[in-house]
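Protein in question reproduced for absentees:

***
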Amino acid sequence: MLGGNELPSFISAILGKPWKPSAKGFTGWLDWWSIKISGQSVANVSREIEGRNDILATRIFKRTKTFVSNKIWPIIDPIVKHHQDPAVKRKILSELEVKILESIESEESIRTDRLRKKLKLEAKENNSKFHRSLTNLESYVLIVGVEDPNPEKHLHANTWQTWGIRTQKGKKPASLPYLEALSKLLVKTVDACTLAREDQISRWFKWSSDMEAAKEQLLLHGSILKSGEYLVSSKV
């Protein structure tokens, strides 16, 4: 969505020039916050995109909000299922993250404020660890959030669902082995980036350590190309 990494940026496309978050914090958003598209604010358009049935917003790439087409869901599905395995889940998630995930699973759909109340995490001192846990779960795509389109007065909050619930209206995912899914996701990502520094690949995904073998095989078969310190889409 915002930019500042290798993927094409929604905001940069609107501005017609590169944009990335800066040390100015929220005030930096004023570069684009007031822009109108067909009479709607950029924030409203972005919210509509998040709520579409064929797109979801995740933090899969560098823990930043990333729009993912349903054409990619069958590739991501085996990766999510791998991390849903009880043994893997307990290894990668904290106790709080497991509780949050299980609470969302039990409700199927729950808003942030109600989730906090259910977990007894409403106190301000819990803000940081609660939101950090949500971000980590999002980066594994175990949960997906969409801003409530009809918020109560003074309350803007996400409604959370698990990956399975959020994507169940889409096409039936293909049953790919985990490592094959990693390879396909890496190819799709390099295609989207067109050009990427090889030494940055390890920062892309939470499971990047599993990507190294996949990357070497893709280079061997020419599915992605290497030019100096860069990986290049074979479509170029």
About this structure: DSSP finds ten helices and ten strands in the chain. Strands lie at 36-37, 40-41, 55-61, 64-69, 110-111, 143-147, 158-162, 195-197, 224-227, 230-233. The chain has a mean pLDDT of 89.
